Amino acid sequence: MALASLHSICLHRIYGFLKEGMWKFCLTNPFSELPTQDVNKLMEMTPLHQYEDPPSVGDVILLLTSGRLTRLDLRSFYPEEEQYLIVKAKQSRAGSIFLPNFASHSKELFILHLVRNITSVNPYLEEFHSYIHPGFDVLRNCQNLRILKFYPSYGELSLDHFPVDLSALSSLRNLEILHLPDMGADTIANVLEICPKLISIGLTDSLDSMEEIHRRQLKNLSLNFDVGSHFQLRRCVWGKDSWFENRQERRVYKSGFCDKTRFAVTLCPLVQELIFYVRVKEAMKELRVLKQLTLLRICFDRYEGDFVREFVALLQEIGPQLKHLSIHWDENIDEYDAVPFNDICDCCPHLESLGIENFIFEPRFSSGASRNFPLKRLKLYGLYESDPESVLFLLSNCKHLEELFLEDVECFDDALLRQIFERNRFTELKVIFAECCNVTREGYEMFMEKASSIQSVLIDTGEENYFYDANRVFKDPNLHYLEDAYFYVKFKEYFRCRLDEKRF
Q1: Which domain of life is it from (predicted)?
Q2: Is 277 within 8 Å of 240 (Cβ atoms)?
């Protein structure tokens, strides 16, 4: 058995003992001497048990108060539902936080106090995620903090009325990624003024903010850039992911969309990863200025009109620098011209990752000759029309694929897979995920037998599920779907990980 697997088994056993309360009578916190990486891994196990055994603050209070954490994500917990358990745990277990008698405080104040204490006893934090904002003042001692993200709370608990002092951010010298829920244009502009070295403000549209910053510069040159005349943002979202219901608002937004995009590329020329919602097709040409762009997620959802010619023109300009491209077609693309797959690959010769959603393949490719596309990762989602010839051509000519994710590709069945294997042995394929397709157990066995490098397989037929992961310590003998299989396969898809709200 590999040493890494033995280490993993030990951590899982420790986590089990922790939830059972083995160390509840210790006078000192036994985890305060454990290596930081192990305390982090133990904390990261809590989301994996979220469905079968929901984590509680009381169960892992020793980890939370160990002072060893560098990564902390509190979103798996619901402290408003376990106030009595938290207090009971604090009374019986070793720890270093003080909680007042919550009976004399409101629920909101109690939870705020809890989160502030947990934060204050972990001065080595580098990454922090939470639904509850503890206040920037309590983070002043976390000088290693690089990633700070707060998310909107969807429960009854509301802490929005507690003040947030943005000026305290100036003390966080190493901060690279900051996200606050419901950040408006003014707030984003203020944040960037205080922290001009941020590389990301999360999955928040910043086009309006760039326009506001441009307006401020023209008015009084108030923004102070420490490095050059632009921001250091490397990851951006430009454009709104939802469309205006009011037609007048839609017209106003569209009329200024090209100018907003122009301001954005001028102020953020270092962008490497971009999510771009196309609302005016002419705005795409502004992206040609981004010479460091390597990952593009471009969405035409709800776009009204033909855009294919302008999109191909954009790829001809920036395609050679792209390594990762994710395209979300409009659902009505069948009304317009589809892009031949060859054109995408010809324009992007160094493309490693490609994702296409709500797509229709051009049935006549630019060239019928055999190709060898350089793709390592491919995700296809939402091919509802029967188009086996195009899928056959595509997968037969991706001989370097390492990851293949197929969802709602109805024509992908055992017969088609057999034809694909006759042309492409998938010698480098490591991960295959197929959901809502028509592959059965026979297709699963083909991947297991013929793909020599396979490491993870998840075939979801709707009625039967087949799962295999080479890195698991214990193999499931009957190959049935395991409840946590999505964590091992589906949730590791490249674009899902790179564009996840926790990372971006």
Answers
A1: Eukaryota
A2: yes
Say which DSSP state 413 is in.
B
Nearest to 194 by CA among 230, 167, 229: 167
What are the residues whose beta carbons fall under 8 Å from the beta carbon of 226, sequence distance 6 or more? Answer: 196, 197
Distance CA 225, CA 238 (A): 21
pLDDT in tens, 345-376: 889 999 999 999 877 555 445 555 567 888 99
Query: How do the domains of the chain map onto residue ranges?
Result: 12-126, 294-306+316-503
In three-state form (DSSP H/G/I as H, E/B as E, the rest C), the secondary structure along 18-30 is HHHCCCCCCCCCH
Max Cα-Cα span within the chain: 76
Q: How far apart are CA 192 and CA 233, in angstroms?
A: 9
Report how far residue 116's alpha carbon sits from residue 139's, in angstroms, rounded to the nearest whole number: 9
Q: Which of 367, 372, 276 is nearest to 322 (CA)?
A: 276
- Assigned CATH topology for domain 294-306+316-503: 3.80.10
Burial profile 289-300: b = 16 or more Cβ within 10 angstroms, e = fewer: bbeebbbbbbbb
pTM of this structure: 0.85
Q: Quick count: other Cβ atoms within 10 Å of Cβ 133? A: 20
∠ CA 396-401-404 to the nearest 5 degrees?
90
What would the pLDDT profile of 458-493 be if each residue is shown by its tens digit? 998 878 888 888 876 555 444 444 456 667 788 889
297, β-bridge pairs: 275, 326
Q: Give the containing element (helix H, strand E) for 71.
A: strand 71-73
DSSP characters over 167-180? GGGGG-TT--EEE-
CA triple 306-308-309, angle to 5 deg: 105
CA-based R_g, the chain, Å: 25
Rounded to 5°, angle at Cα 323 from 319 and 324: 100
Question: Rounded distance, CA 419 to CA 276, Å?
Answer: 37
Chain centroid, CA 388 distance in Å:
31
Strand ranges in 206-361 using DSSP code E only, listed in sequence order: 235-238, 273-277, 295-299, 324-328, 353-357
> Contact at 8 Å (CB) between 264 and 238?
yes
DSSP state letters, 375-398: -SEEEEEEE-S--HHHHHHHHHT-
- Output DSSP code: residue 237: E
**Residue 404 CA, distance from chain mean position:** 18
